[in-house]
Amino acid sequence: MDLNSLTHWQQLSFCAAICERSMPNFQLFCELEETPEQSKQSRKILNKVWEYLRGQLSSMKNIEKQLEVLNELVPDPTQYESYGAYPAMDCMVTLQSCIQGILDDSINDAQAMQTMTHERLLEVFELQEQNKEDSPLWSRQMEFEQSALALICAQNSHAQTIKELIPLSHDLGVSQLGISLDD
Question: What fold is seen in the domain 7-169?
Fold first, then answer.
């Protein structure tokens, strides 16, 4: 499916779903770097995005401030020895895209966020000397995206769509890279 043909709301929903799915990557990074407050901040901001998408955000007043907070949360991978800084950065970049999309409805980043996610997965496969065709992670990501898009494109209310999209995106707490904090 051509993501550029989606409405702004649909694109924003897809970006939020990708961000939710990648959140364990950022949470693990925060855990390893002993910065639990950053993990809590990112969760609060993503929850605001979901509220907006459900039509439940009572005020847009604080949304712009969230960009400033997010700028502080985005790790610079060159400052860390851990590869985990890269997927953590991707998660925060996706969250930034969501906030920017709320503030400016001309921002439609679904295709860019999907591409970034795919490129990171392919990079991980390369590091593991694995082909995407042989990886259950690639299959899971493709199935997730198809399910998310089917849900987003269905003729349901926004609130109902988001109600179903959040648990789908959470995917039992497992990221697209197979990272789970419950292990």
Answer: YP_001051499.1 fold like (1.20.1590)
